[in-house]
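Subgroup meeting minutes
Present: P.N., E.W., G.H.
Scribe: E.W.

1. P.N. recapped why we're keeping a running log of single-chain structure predictions: easier to compare across weeks, and new members can see raw inputs and outputs side by side.
2. G.H. added today's entry (717 aa).
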Amino acid sequence: MIRNTLSLAVVAAMLTACGAGNSSNDPEPPPPPVNQSPSVSAVGDQSVSEGNTDVVTVSATDPDGDALTFSLSGDDAAAFSISSEGAVTFNEAPDFDEPTDQDEDNVYALTVSASDGELSDSDSFTVTVTNVVEGRTVDGPVSGATISLQKRAAGTEDEFVEDATTTSDEEGRFDFADYVFDYDTFDYKTISTGGVDIATGVDLGDLTLISNVGKSGGNVNVNAITTLLSVVDTEEEQQELIDKLGLEGTPEELIQTDIWEGSEEGDAASQEAQRVNSQLVTIIKTVATIVENASDEEVDPTELVEAVAEEVVEAAEQTSTELELSDPEVVSDVVTGGIEEVAPDAEVDPEVVDAASDAVAEVNSVLGDEEVDPTSDTATGVAGAAQEDLQESVEDVVTGETDLETFEEETDAENLLEDVPTDPDDPDADGDGLADTVDPDDDNDGVNDGADAFPFDSTESVDTDGDGVGNNADTDDDGDGVADGSDAYPLDAGISTPALEINIGSGFVVTDYDPATQSESTFDGEFDLVDGAVDVDISGNPLNQTNMANALSGGDFRAPTISIPVEAVPVGSAEASTVVQLVDGADATQDAGERIISFDLAMDWEGDGDTLTVELPPQTAAGFYETTDGLRVNVTVENLDSDFMSVTEGTIDYPATLDFKIAALIAKVDDFLPSSFLDTGVYTMTVDTTGVPIYVSRNDGTGTSVTSLEVTFSIGD
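Output recorded in log:
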């Protein structure tokens, strides 16, 4: 027993000595695991339309399977949040017009990081906030209107085609948030049709309003003012129209401004725009009512509103002062012109049109009252009466259900506006029982307040020179230092001596000649007044090419003649000089590759108040001809006669006319000009008229002196 125990002990000792059980002979234990960095997937730059908060969900992985924590940094991180799942969102819906990024350029800089608690990875990207086409339709705010987004190829005259539609909400607002715009490829406009004016409660039927969409997109408000701007070609002309309407701002600003919201906030410019907007809508609806009930043919609402808009623009062009939409004559011209344009066959008694125009002018006088908030119950009450009660009366008189006398009684302001809410304390200057806030003629002098420079003085209504003294009492109405009794143009400070006078509304007649049939043909036209020049464009009626070619070849030639009726003839005489130029193209500027011919001429005139003689005395007129490659050659015109420009003697039945003969000079040029000089194409002839006093008058009694006559014409095949 003892021996066995000892043996075991010895064995144990031996094993110990031999190293049995020592770890140096066993495999090394594995080292503790090494933490690996997470990886963030590339995010890429993002684009978000304004009003949306969701941006992107960031993806990240961890090789170790550790839970990750996301965070944001960068210049604009304060505007964003990120969830535990990596969803990046704006804290507040972004507004393109009020960016909150550091550079305020709507490009937000972000860096996203993913961390496992020890290690992290990150990625930087930008978030660009894009502009959403959004806006509001306003007569008052129009709910339930159909908003059509239309487009055409950029810079063309192609027809617009519908590409998207939406509907205005209960506040008249709309947007095209899901629509992708391509401003480089297309031009856009919005058209609003129908709906309910929530300020008046009136169903607007087919009332159509238009607005262009600028290249910057953004706010595109639709109202009657933007409708006017949509029919004007250039930004310069749009600005002139805005100024004539007495409004503030640029075309872009007016399109982007919610004039109803601005009015509610007390913005004076918006309030004035809203007043003009209400006046325009009243005119548009009246034309629509007349046409709908007097024409057998259905008229497209868009064509109708564009026709009325063009008539308003023309009326603005024909006045040198602010356009008064409460002037019965202005309203009548617009209404009459609109009807004739869209429904020329409509049978409407002119007396009915005049009576309706008078009623509209009275309502517009009230709607334009600067003392009345256009969003007030009083203003919306007047607008409602104009939209509904007035239109019902117009319909009845046009269809013959009521006679003219009844219509005039119904639409008299005291009857039409008697239920409009007013303040009991509102004054009544003329004591007619109608508060001044709803009285179209506060002094009862027969001139609507909007067109009355002295609305509370029944003895005065006009102050041409703005000196505070009415024309009835003023001895120098235009303030030019020449007493009215000695002033040939007492309402125009720019001229006081007699001149050859033509009226911008009188139009002209063009007489052309066909050598093949030896017959004459005529067509009518109207001229414009542009930058002190009489602007005549007859390029839409090409002149006979054979006749014009004969001007150079010596064949049977009669110079095409433009005849403009003369209102008055000056007294006096003068030896004058003028410059005549003919250039290729539809403008008076010689562009690269265009030819030009120019003459310096002596031109004498003599007038006795009844007749005027304009003579080109026998002379050798020096000039030059420049070819398409820039070669300039001196030319002359020999033995001129007086038929280039003349004034025919008038009779009772046929007024005197200023006759201007196209190409009469060219026919007398020496033999240098090529036979193709008057070939088919478009040409512009300019005549300096500084030496002959010519005055262009307007229907409102104003006018301006002109310094040149510019004629754009074309020659046909």
